[in-house]
Amino acid sequence: MENEMTLSFAAISENEALARMTLTFFVAALDPTLEEISEYKTVISEAVTNAIIHGYDEDRSGIVRVHAALDGREVTVTISDEGGGIENVEEAMQPMYTSKPERERSGMGFTIMESFTDSLSVDSSNGGGTIVTFKKKFSPVQETCSSVG
Amino acid sequence: MAESCRISTTFVEYKDSGKRPLNYGPKGGIHMNQITLTSGGIVIVRPAGELDHHTADSIKREVSRLIFGGKAAAVIWDLGSLQFMDSAGIGLILGRMRDLGAVEGGTVILNPSPTMKKMFELSGLGSHLLEGTVEDAIKRLGGILHGK
């Protein structure tokens, strides 16, 4: 492991941007493409939003924890909460499934996360919190500026 | 990286305006969401900055108000200046499509980034995507609205 970080914050929606920004800076030295960084930010946003809305039901006293580790060009990120948990993970991961249709959630969070990561695991039990772990590998830096002259 | 270029631009703009540089509020600073209504009853929404669960609500309220007030029969989501969007954006657009269902209105999603485009396609909204100008989008909606 070449670098690692831990961040914990209160379960309030303003902190979704904080998590995205911090984890973006964490991988900045790898010089990812704009599309890679945008996909990575989306996955973080989905997992953190899930922890705040579904884990803690927006109870501001809840704490969301984020851990990230870099190994070469691969980052492993774990986002965990100690909230309500997911009763049926398999059902929650179905496209368009949402437990809160009145809150205008699209039900696409897990589908998008799976699509934008190299691996994704969700460990949850009813009342026992949720741990989402994903890995994303960034492509090697391409030499685009050849020396002139 | 382009990302860091944007941050420095922000600071330059703020130095002149005297405002605070890190204002991410949906109603202030440089990340101003624009919502306009054309005389033809089309709402043009130009979200700016980052669209997530935290920032989607104010747009939702305003666009729903225009639809249910009988003032709008179609929505153009012009995403060209949006820097980031997660599935809250999908929920926002799907929700307004449900609102428009009552008036049989149309939806066009204009110029999303490649990442946003993938998310819309995964969500079954691929047929609403368009690369082009607002005029192109209005033209497409003209067909939808008159063809109903």
UniProtKB/TrEMBL annotation, chain A:
Pfam short name (any one): HATPase_c_2
GO MF? protein serine/threonine kinase activity
Q: What class of enzyme is it?
A: transferase
Q: Which SUPFAM superfamilies match?
A: ATPase domain of HSP90 chaperone/DNA topoisomerase II/histidine kinase (SSF55874)
* Domain Histidine kinase/HSP90-like ATPase stretches: 35-140
Taxonomic superkingdom: Bacteria
Report the PANTHER family cross-referenced here.
Answer: ANTI-SIGMA-F FACTOR RSBW, ANTI-SIGMA-F FACTOR RSBW-RELATED
Tell me the protein family, please: Belongs to the anti-sigma-factor family.
Q: What is this protein called?
A: Anti-sigma F factor
- Identify the species of origin: Bhargavaea changchunensis
